[in-house]
Design goal:
It is built from 4 helices and no strands.
Length: about 110
């Protein structure tokens, strides 16, 4: 159950951070305005809060593992929202990152 909770929190954090960054991008680069930027800033703040809910108490471990989730999530976001098509090296890199997440977060510790 703890692993499932952790995975759900990583997914929620990814949506908040990647979505927040995308909203800021849209507000600035696509000239959609200050409301988009503001919504992005709020989402980015929510990401910071969600990260604190992880069951592991070590900030460095959580953020290091989240880095791998961010890589894979960013590619997925690009596919779903912007029509980006990753090549095989993008996919391979994301899988390597997710394997790193699994080792960092879920390997048995003594």
């Amino acid at each position: 159950m703890t692993v499932l909770r952790s995975l759900a929190l990583f997914a929620l954090a990814a949506v908040a951070e990647i979505g927040g960054a995308w909203l800021v991008w849209q507000g600035v680069r696509e000239h959609r305005g200050v409301a988009w930027i503001g919504a992005g800033v709020i989402a980015l703040g929510l990401y910071g809060f969600v990260a604190t809910l992880q069951p592991d108490a070590h900030f460095g471990r959580i953020l290091a593992a989240y880095g791998g989730v961010f890589v894979a999530g960013s590619l997925a976001w690009g596919m779903l929202v912007d029509g980006f098509r990753p090549d095989r090296y993008d996919v391979l890199g994301a899988l390597v990152c997710l394997a790193g997440v699994a080792v960092i977060m879920y390997a048995p510790r003594s």
